From TrEMBL:
This is Beta-lactamase. It catalyses: a beta-lactam + H2O = a substituted beta-amino acid. InterPro entries: Beta-lactam/transpept (IPR050515), Beta-lactam/transpept-like (IPR012338), Beta-lactam_class-D_AS (IPR002137), PBP_dimer (IPR005311), PBP_dimer_sf (IPR036138), PCN-bd_Tpept (IPR001460). The lineage of its organism: Bacteria, Bacillati, Actinomycetota, Actinomycetes, Micrococcales. The keyword Aminoacyl-tRNA synthetase does not apply. It is found in: Membrane. Gene3D superfamilies: DD-peptidase/beta-lactamase superfamily, Penicillin-binding protein 2a (Domain 2), Penicillin-binding protein 2a, domain 3.
Amino acid sequence: MPPTAGPPAAPPAPPRKGRPALIVGIVVVVLLALGAGAWFLFREPPVPEPEAAAAELAAALEAGTPAEVPLALETSASPDEQYARVFEQLVAAVGEDAGTVTVKSVTPVEEGADGTATATATLAWTWPVATEAAWEYETVAKLTYPGPVDGEAGAWEATWNTGVLVPGLEPGERLAVDRTEPARGEIVTTSGETIVGMTPVHHVGIDKTRPGWDTAASQLGDVLGFDQETTDGIAAQVDSAGEKAFVEVITIRENDPEYDFDAAMAIDGVVGIPDELPLARDRDFARALLGTVGEATAEIVEESEGTIKAGDMVGLSGLQAAHDEQLRGVPGLAVTIEPAEGGEGREAFTIDKKDGEPVAVTLDPATQVRAEAALAGFDSLASAIVAIKPSTGAVLAAASGPGSEGYNTAALGQYPPGSTFKIATALAMLRSGITPETPLPCTATINIEGREFQNVPGYPEPAMGDAVPFRTVFANSCNTGFISQHEKISQQQLHDAAASLGLGVEPAAFGAAAALGDVPTEAAGTEHAASMIGQGQVLATPLAMATVAASVSAGHTVSPWLVEASGEEAAEAPSGDLTADEAATLRDLMGGVVSEGSAKALQDVPGIVGAKTGTAQFGDGSKAHVWMLAIANDLAAVVFIEEGELGSTTAGPVMHEFLTGS
């Protein structure tokens, strides 16, 4: 039986075409629900502000590495190499870290229709080309923004060209820097006489490019009078120098009678290079005080913070160093833009040189020469003579002898002043009520806490006794007489009396390195007893003791000065509590030293007012520093010898020679 036919099969369901429409509908509903702000979710990133990019560019330019920031290059040239070439000479002149670049302004952003943008940065450049001057200029850098990248904000780029470095600088051009050295200022007297000025010299040395150089050292040593050790040292230096080296041996003043310059020039291989140097009137004149000039050391260059360059001539010691800035002046500087293919450059910046200004000092050349002549024989001992004009405090001479070996013993050498300090002790005693007629014990010895003090060998017996007038004790410098008062005069009183005379007090305006000694405010027992006669911990320089003599002469506390100040720099008159009456009594006591005491040898000195000798033992007591102070007319002077017999026998004849010139 045939199968029974069922109902016909249902046709397949048609595809659902309404789903996309549903999604769109949902999105529309969501958008309508969120409102108009929903467009932000699909917006391109905004253009970033250009100020940060401008600051990064400025920092890279200041560091000399412009290629470290995004640049739009117009050529294949390396920006860093271009920078180095353009600024090579300027960087050498001012220092690698000296130039600065800052952003002065950035123009408002101009946006393009395609998402790009542009702006312009103005950069401010500063090059400190001199101590008080800088080359300042502005350049312009075009900034471009290329638009977003992969949905992220892009980076600003600076359009690179050499005009970003210097205004108007064309490709291939660079800066040239020329320095003009100033003339160094002179050191003159307050009356205008030149003490140190530019002096013609010759740098004499051996040139290894000349025939005969290999035998020149020995011949030159003979001509110049060098010892064998010095000559051998020169020969070794020449041998070790480069094959084209010039080895300087000595600098000789033009027409210097001490050296046979012509004979030196006749030696094969020897050359004399002419020059000018700031030198004193002769080789040894006040050398320790005035100082020297030479090429700046590495330390001086570093400490100058760019104002001094390697090879510059600067003061190395003494007044030349203390007043170097004034004497040195300011170099001139010319910055020019040098064309790529040679030819004349065009001016970019110029500073005129400023020559150094003179420094005026109180030295009297004739007095200084006389002092140096009196010390000429002390070639193995430190020595000094200082002379002050009491009425003004001006230092007329500050000579350090040849045995000081270039050290400024006159102003800086500190030693126990010995019995010259008894002027200060006498002032303290006068203030305690003692008078020149007060009787004091002047015994052969005095014992203080187990230490025995005695008078100098040869002390006159007629000046000894249990009741000797203070003026006689002072005139003959009786140690025991002064020490006998150590319980009545405190260490503080000694200190104060010394300060009244200018000892231990910093000078108000000396104008150079100086020390005026030190008198402790506290000392007890034997130390205090020793202080009464200028030993123990009491120290003084020759300048300090000359100040003591000047104060006694002037009738008031004197503050010595050497360099003339001007305008607002001028110091006020020194203040001190030394009275005219006290000074008059001290002058009277010092007069007794000449008339009846240890300075009788000065009786024939014209205008002599008074003096005081001093002997200060040191070491094991067998050696002594020796001193003499003197006042004659309007002159106060001190002689110091590092070692001698007595102040009267060693320093006395030197003082006589200095005061009389014979």
